[in-house]
């Protein structure tokens, strides 16, 4: 997406329509934009920033390492994102930059001040629904997006309604932060035969995990993981958002960087799932590993949980599906 002042559109650029930005979202001037065709536009002061002409340069996403065929696949794919907090919002932005154009954003929460330091939205969005603020931000990356926002707890919906909502969804991404919501999302994906990617950050930012499950593939499901493997230790019971002082919660420096690293791994796994089965897709190779559970270490991870040192990142092997699993083996009981 490239924005130009009304009288500065270079030749060969397609005009799509009008798009309105809030003046506060805009700096005066535009960056120099370089494409395969060369320099397209130079920064120019915007005298009327609230109403600028929007033009799309068709090749904008071909700067990615994907072939055109892969890009077309991503454009028509639909992703449902459960939870658009720090990890979910970062996932959404990266998916858009990869060329995904149909996204369902689900989160009942509003952005609070304590979210801003690690969320993709800003101080200007505090008090707004996260899905609404994020959708606006995503449209500024690619105005051609087809976004649907759900600022409610859809887990309370009847199953038929949920099935209808997710009918055209290719991949479900779970970046919720409550264990019960994560299990429910896993169940939903399993029942509806949708691939699900779970992305989560461990306590104190001492690492994270990305787990995925592909329908009809004989591999452990998310319930197998949670029922069958010891979880990282929890040292605190007080949440940062309810802390009354420094004795309650000391905070984690650089938590934004921690959540981003987990989000970016989840994005690559999600893209691999969207492109699986297509020829010449290097990304899909990640799905052929022996484990569908990736543990991501960072600078805080030394001797925590299963990490053997800082930045220790590995596929955690585990056997399954578990015979006693409450989800994937329940029909046999
Ligand atoms: Zn299972």
From TrEMBL:
<keyword id="KW-0548">Nucleotidyltransferase</keyword>
<dbReference type="GO" id="GO:0016779">
    <property type="term" value="F:nucleotidyltransferase activity"/>
</dbReference>
<dbReference type="Pfam" id="PF00899">
    <property type="entry name" value="ThiF"/>
</dbReference>
<dbReference type="GO" id="GO:0061503">
    <property type="term" value="F:tRNA threonylcarbamoyladenosine dehydratase"/>
</dbReference>
<dbReference type="GO" id="GO:0008641">
    <property type="term" value="F:ubiquitin-like modifier activating enzyme activity"/>
</dbReference>
<feature type="domain" description="THIF-type NAD/FAD binding fold">
    <location>
        <begin position="66"/>
        <end position="277"/>
    </location>
</feature>
<protein>
    <submittedName>
        <fullName>Sulfur carrier protein ThiS adenylyltransferase</fullName>
        <ecNumber>2.7.7.73</ecNumber>
    </submittedName>
</protein>
<dbReference type="InterPro" id="IPR045886">
    <property type="entry name" value="ThiF/MoeB/HesA"/>
</dbReference>
<dbReference type="InterPro" id="IPR035985">
    <property type="entry name" value="Ubiquitin-activating_enz"/>
</dbReference>
<dbReference type="GO" id="GO:0061504">
    <property type="term" value="P:cyclic threonylcarbamoyladenosine biosynthetic process"/>
</dbReference>
<keyword id="KW-0808">Transferase</keyword>
<dbReference type="InterPro" id="IPR000594">
    <property type="entry name" value="ThiF_NAD_FAD-bd"/>
</dbReference>
């Amino acid at each position: 997406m490239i924005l130009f002042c009304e009288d500065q559109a270079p030749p060969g650029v397609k005009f799509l329509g009008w798009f309105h930005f809030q003046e506060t979202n805009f700096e005066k001037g535009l960056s120099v934009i370089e494409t395969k065709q060369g320099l397209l536009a130079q920064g120019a002061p915007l005298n009327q920033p609230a109403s600028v002409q929007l033009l799309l340069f068709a090749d904008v996403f071909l700067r990615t390492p994907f072939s055109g065929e892969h890009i077309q696949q991503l454009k028509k794919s639909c992703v449902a994102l459960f939870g658009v907090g720090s990890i979910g919002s970062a996932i959404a932005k990266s998916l858009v930059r990869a060329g995904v154009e149909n996204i369902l954003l689900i989160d009942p929460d509003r952005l609070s001040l304590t979210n801003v330091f690690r969320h993709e939205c800003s101080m200007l969005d505090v008090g707004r629904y996260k899905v609404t603020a994020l959708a606006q931000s995503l449209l500024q990356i690619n105005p051609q997006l087809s976004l649907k926002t759900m600022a409610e707890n859809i887990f309370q919906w009847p199953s038929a309604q949920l099935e209808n909502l997710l009918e055209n969804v290719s991949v479900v991404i779970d970046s919720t932060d409550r264990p019960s919501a994560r299990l429910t999302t896993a169940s939903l994906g399993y029942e509806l035969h949708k691939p699900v990617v779970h992305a989560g950050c461990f306590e104190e930012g001492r690492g994270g995990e990305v787990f995925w499950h592909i329908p009809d593939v004989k591999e452990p499901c998310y319930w197998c993981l949670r029922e069958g493997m010891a979880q990282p230790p929890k040292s605190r019971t007080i949440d940062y958002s309810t802390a009354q002082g420094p004795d309650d919660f000391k905070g984690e420096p650089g938590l934004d960087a921690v959540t981003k690293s987990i989000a970016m791994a989840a994005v690559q796994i999600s893209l691999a799932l969207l492109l699986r089965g297509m020829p010449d897709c290097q990304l899909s190779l990640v799905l052929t590993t022996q484990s569908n559970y990736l543990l991501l270490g960072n600078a805080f991870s030394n001797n925590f949980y299963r990490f053997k040192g800082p930045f220790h990142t590995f596929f955690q092997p585990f056997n399954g599906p578990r015979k006693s699993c409450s989800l994937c083996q329940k029909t046999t009981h």
